[in-house]
Sequence to fold (154 residues):
Amino acid sequence: MSPKNIFSCIYRICHITNNELMYIGSTKNFNTRMSSHKHNIKYGLQNRLYSCINANGGLECFKFDILKTFENLTKIELRKKEDEFIKLFNPSLNTNRAYVSDEEKRANNLIAVKKHRENNEEYINKCNERSKEFRNNNPDYMKEYYKKRKRDFD
Fold:
């Protein structure tokens, strides 16, 4: 069992006049996390959040708020809570979901595989043709290959 984080929180970074510029995050130590964000902004770490803050007036134009505190949450439990807030607020500066269940990952993977096949149909067909040609031109090899595979499954 993973250790519990005491006094975890969900926080928001939001522009003081443009609520469209918002980020939702979670941490077990708000002060340390805010210091980390401020350091990354000051020293030019490039991501959507930090670039946006620098392009829209800098730190003095953004507020840092604690939206909700929790006691005794695991890291995964905290990520699930963060994801609930991301869905609720739909912040423009979050690039990734905080938590994706195994079921959602499988569904997303199926969609990605389908898109890949659609976008690479010509290449996949060419590979299938080469495989078929290899099998037809190498019947002895294929016979041994299938014998070995059959033994592996027995």
In short: The radius of gyration is 25 Å. Helices lie at 30-42, 48-55, 75-89, 102-119, 121-137, 139-153. The mean pLDDT is 90.
